[in-house]
C-alpha cells in the first residue's frame, strides 16, 4: 500500500476547509442581505418548478406537470398569460372522445409556445 505524503494531506485538508468556509460565508451573506434568487436573464431561463407550486405539481412519471385549469403568468414574459386546460395542457379544453388525428409534440418552451397565445404556438401552427 502506498503511503500518502503528510505535507500533501495537510494541503488537501486546508484546501477542503477553505472551500467549505468560502461557501458558508457566501451563503451567510446572501441570506443576511435577503437577495432575490430569481435570475433575471432573458437568455438563460431556468425552469424553477419548485419556486412556483401554484403552477406546477409533482408527478411520479413526469417529475412535474402543470396544474390543470390554470392561467399562468410568467416573470419572464411580462404581461403574457398561458391557459392550462383541464388535462394540464396548453390551450383550450379538448374532447378526447372525438375520432380525429392528434399531434404529439415533445420539446421545450418553444414547442409549448411560452410567451405566445395558443393560436400563435408552434404546435397549433403545425396542426393547422
Write down the Rg. 23 Å
Question: What does the overall shape look like?
Answer: elongated
Estimate what percentage of residues fall within beta strands: 5-15%
Q: Low-confidence parts lasting 5 or more residues at pLDDT below 50?
A: none
Brief characterization of the structure:
30% of the residues lie in helices and 12% in strands.
Please explain how this structure is put together.
It contains three helices and four strands. The chain has a two-stranded antiparallel sheet. A two-stranded antiparallel sheet has the order 3-4. It is α+β, with helices and mostly antiparallel strands and 128 residues long.
Fold blueprint:
Layout: H1 6-33, E1 56-59, E2 63-66, E3 70-73, E4 81-84, H2 109-112, H3 122-127
Antiparallel strand pairs: 1-2, 3-4
Describe this protein with a few key phrases.
two-stranded antiparallel sheet, 30% helix, alpha+beta, single chain, two-stranded antiparallel ribbon, 128 residues
